[in-house]
TrEMBL record:
Protein's name according to its UniProt entry: Cyclic di-GMP phosphodiesterase Gmr
Residue ranges of domain EAL in the record: 424-674
Domain GGDEF: 282-416
EC code(s) of this entry: 3.1.4.52
The organism's taxonomic lineage, starting at the top: Bacteria, Pseudomonadati, Pseudomonadota, Alphaproteobacteria, Hyphomicrobiales
Gene name in the database record: gmr_12
SUPFAM superfamilies in the record: EAL domain-like, Nucleotide cyclase
Amino acid sequence: MTFLDPVNVADGKVDANLILQLYDRLDTAVWIFDFDHKRYLWANRKTLEITEADSLEELQSRDLGADMSPAVEQRLRQYQQDFCKGDVSFSEIWTLYPKGKPKVLQIEMSGVQLRDGRMALLCEGREHHEQQPETLRSAEALLHTTVMIALFSKDGSPLYRNTASRASCITLETRFPDQFVREEDVKDIFDLVEQERTLKFVAHVKTSLGFKWHELTIRACHDAVSGQPAYLVSEIDVTELHETKERAQYLASHDTLTGLSNRTFLQERLTHILNTADTKNQTATLYLFDLDDFKLVNDSLGHAAGDVLLQLVAEELKAIAGPEDIVARLGGDEFLICHLEKPGSVDPDWFGRSLLRSFAKPQVLEGKRRQVGLSIGYAHYPDDGRDIDQLMRHADLALYQAKSDPSAKCVRFRDRMRRLRDEHRAIKKDLERALQKNEFILYYQPIACTRTDKVVSGEALLRWQHPERGMVGPDDFIKIAEDAGLIDEIGTWVAEQVAHLQHRLHNLQYAVPLALNVSPRQLSDSSFLSLMQSLPLATGCDPSDISLEITESVILGDIPNARETLTALKHCGYQIVIDDFGTGYSNLAYLHNYPIDGIKIDRMFMEDIGTGGEIVKLILSLANALDAGVVAEGVETIEQRSWLSQNGCNRYQGYLYSRPVPEERFLSMLETQSQIAAM
């Protein structure tokens, strides 16, 4: 209803105007406030007097929202919400500022519903005569402060809440114990307050904005109205500070990229898990592993792709690990799992093999399926070590063995591994010296014609003239050079030496092309293409007389942008040859997509010749379809050479013709061949 409508009072003898006159005679200010528009809807004469308004129309025109503080606006919204929920009323001391002059009123507030359905505020205000400055200022402070202040009875029921506290609580009736997330936080709390009189702590609480962290200060006191014992509670929202602290603690103990535990947190967690193993008579196994060719991914696809791969691996490991296991990233591409095995396990090493199987399926990286290989080293507690440091050292030695031996990707620690590690460390150090002192040399193995037995080409093979160990073959140091990051520098030296020799052969009028091996790691390095493009000008070589031998893994997708790189090398004039063909899984569909000039049949297929050579015939047919030349490797008997000649393979390489020989011996062979041809 509105105040201007007729009302049926005293049989219709009293109308609305008379009621308005009655209100105007009251010594109490009465007004209706519009929450939504922040304006007076109606007021009696006493209200006009207090607000110093010339008329009701002038009072209604005032926009109270123009200079309303956020705290006052928040308090009014709280009233509106409470009135909509139920028939409640409030009595508070407010200071109004009509035309800038403070007027202190004791206001009784209740809700009144307007005809349009909205809730408005009905106020009855009387001047508050005990206007002590401290009282007024404390009331204003309680209204505007962001500190949540509330008074609770001894049973936890709310007696008073300031604006901030009311905004935080879920309902007006929320009891003090009910606002805590964890029951243990509030257990016996009032007993402690009675003992200490003041208690301060941080707790996880339920608020109107969700779960928060509050710092609470509780003091035992009395309710000024009833005189009964009560508790004054002040709360400060420390959520941001608490979460920042928790975040700092999390960052200090976890890897930011993968969310796994890091080295810092590992010592504490490993100590706990080893104690658990002792207590429950379990076997704890420390697995260390890293990703095969991770540097290749970083170098070829970029560090962002490398990060994505690490995150994929971390998720896979978390899925594999048991609830009591520890999964950690130690740095780079190195990870750790500490796995607890129940007593009496027949095969405690099964977990390591399951890790390998889990990564047998390709991972999708940048829209492409890529095979991710693992090398794993592990040590059992307590058999392989009695403390964390010893277990870590021994698992690391086993990992080193796994990385050095491609046939065994999951290796348990053995005492002999210490010696192997020391040998590899010595070789790495010697390799660095070898590059500085030019201790590397190239041998050349002739490639001959199966029909004429003449040298038609030669493959460059790396050797190391070690000052103490003598001549060292590539199988004994190439893998170590790759792990030490020295392979690119060695590869550059090889390419330059081959280019110089090819130019020399041209000047000697020997039409004998040369070949050199290119590792996947070299091919993924952008500087390799630049090097090969610069060699003709730097050395005078003819790229068309130099073959670059690559492995099948390059064309099977292990090297991103391999086709583009090989095409660029082909445009420079180099010949592209697949080495050790047949050991991978190449097929015609793959090969047709690459600029392949030749195929070298792996030596293991020479044994097939004795039983009919069906596999070799198939490879020769494939090469013919590709219009690619063929070289058979590992030919050791005259019968093998004859069979190859009869079945259309015109070139061969192996001990039947010659072992690899030094450069000058190779040149001597070519000179002798030239002299014979001239006779």
